[in-house]
UniProtKB/TrEMBL annotation:
The keyword rRNA-binding does not apply. This is Glycosyltransferase 8 domain-containing protein 1. Belongs to the glycosyltransferase 8 family. Signal peptide: none annotated. It is a single-pass type II membrane protein. Pfam families: Glyco_transf_8. It comes from Jacana jacana (Wattled jacana). One of its GO terms (cellular component) is Golgi apparatus. Transmembrane segments: none annotated. The keyword Glycoprotein applies.
């Protein structure tokens, strides 16, 4: 995993003078005015707003081979005493941290970054993450820290699982209406086997340095094997 995977944990350090910020993964396309997402209201005391995995948009898709990834038990090992002591219900809806809005003032007040670091350290020591986890090592600590302490974003601002398989999951009309498209999963839009690559290609601008194009060719060659 790249160290940049954890950049979202350090937003106050990256934009120290900002009061609010949007985090998005690199496998997304924004199709509407992102100011609407930025203006997502956060409840008092909440440091972030995420898209819940039980929303109607997400439930259109079943994630194959990823265990039960719609609730907490899909990400955390409830056999571990440290997890049980938190008294978090295993069937609580999880959320997707690939797109979120953060209140950085509240984030700093609650020392969210230090809390996340604590759970990363404990996982190294005790292996607290579920063994069915589908590779998202940043999600479990966020689920713990923000358990019932986060606001919600409009699910159309994180239409996801476009990369969960090479097949079409949504209708063309739905994809067109989505405010944000998210290719989370193993099939990325810069690879040959991804879904909805025509949407990605519509907005794709080649890197003038040529570095991204080289990475892309290597990715396609790997997928072809």
């Amino acid at each position: 995993f790249s160290q940049l995977t954890f950049a979202r944990f350090y937003l106050p350090n990256l934009v120290p003078h900002a009061e609010k910020a949007i985090y998005v993964d690199d496998d997304i396309i924004v199709q509407d005015d992102i100011l609407e997402l930025y203006n997502t209201p956060l409840k008092p005391g909440h440091a972030a707003a995420f898209s819940d995995d039980c929303d109607s948009t997400t439930n259109k898709v079943a994630v194959r081979g990823a265990g039960n990834q719609y609730n907490y038990i899909g990400f955390l090992d409830y056999k571990k005493e440290t997890i049980r002591k938190l008294a978090m219900k295993a069937n609580t809806c999880s959320f997707n941290p690939g797109v979120f809005v953060a209140n950085l003032t509240e984030w700093k007040l609650q020392n969210i970054t230090k809390q996340l670091e604590k759970w990363m350290t404990l996982n190294v020591e005790e292996e607290l993450y579920s063994r069915t986890l589908a590779g998202s090592i940043t999600t479990p600590p966020l689920l713990i820290v923000f358990y019932k302490q986060h606001s919600s974003i409009d699910p159309m601002w994180n239409v996801r699982h476009l990369g969960s398989s090479a097949g079409k999951r949504y209708s063309p009309q739905f994809v067109k209406a989505a405010k944000l498209l998210h290719w989370n999963g193993h099939f990325k839009p810069w690879g040959r086997t991804a879904s909805y690559t025509e949407v990605w290609e519509k907005w794709y601008i080649p890197d003038p340095t040529g570095k991204f194009s080289l990475i892309r060719r290597h990715s396609e060659a790997y997928e072809a094997k």
